[in-house]
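Batch job 17 of 40 flagged for manual review because the log was empty.
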Amino acid sequence: MKYLTGKPGWLLLLALGLAFPFFAKNDYHLTVMSTAYIFAIATLGLNLITGYTGQFNLAHSGFMAVGAYTVGILTVDYQVPFWIAFVLSGVVAAFLGIFIGLVSLRLKGHYFSIFTMCVGYIMFLVIEKWESLTHGTVGIIGIPAPTGVGSFTFDTPRSLYYLVFFFLVLGTWVMHRIATSLLGRTFVAIRNSDNLAESLGIDLMRNKLLAFLLSVFYAGLAGGLYAGFVRFLGPGIAGIEHTFDMTMYMLIGGLGTLLGPLLGALSVPWLTQYLQFLQEYRFIVFGPILVLLVIFVPHGIVGTYMGWRARREAGAIAPRSEAALAAKTQPEAGRA
């Protein structure tokens, strides 16, 4: 089990992702998994600002909607090629994040969360009411599928699955590089203590803003993929319930870890799918399961396992250290 969080574990997950379409029973399963991948990308972004930097952004689904509507509006109303619109989906979300971040990140703790919750609701209202731009409650219909790249086309559920999976792998690799870099350790220092980080010479506002922009950039790209995959958009994509879903993925998998949010984002949708036979009563089953996980596994599945492994390794090192110290002192005692 030690290898699950190391390189062999990641290679195993990559192999399983590549092989999944060959074991999927139908296109519906491919659609469920592809949608889970898209929200996993957005969850990676939320985990960066929340799990690593300690700022709970409740407007995250609003930024995902900004990315999705960027693709929808540009491709449908202005006939912009999909890939140009897709790149702009992350850029537009990050550009909007500059202004929101400069204001909101001056607040701390639950004040920041409440402020971003209000921002997220404003985003939802703008999308719903600005009919000349967003098409209002009617939504945007007929968003073109991603255009082919060379000999690769994306006109089947299987090809779209591999496209989304590629971006999930790429996004995970980039996030791993960020989390293990000096920048990632800076974010963790800010999460652990603002005052201590500032005393070490860390520019709090600049690093918080950078984490915020990277986070919403991930959300925007996930929204752009969502638009090209679903090909229909409505204001509901900006609903705060999607942010709570992504928060649930982080809590179940492990907040502030890289594998945890992925595990939560990929497992929870399948659990809800298998509970659909209960219809509206499925949340009566799912709710207590979530409560029990939060109570008994507060650090998530991956976080709890990593903590257990660290304690086990520390316990194994301690006897060896004591034995080495005893062996060192015995000869000295004999010479005396």
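Reviewer: the log was empty due to a logging misconfiguration, but the result itself is present. The longest helix spans residues 300-335. Unflagging and moving on to job 18.
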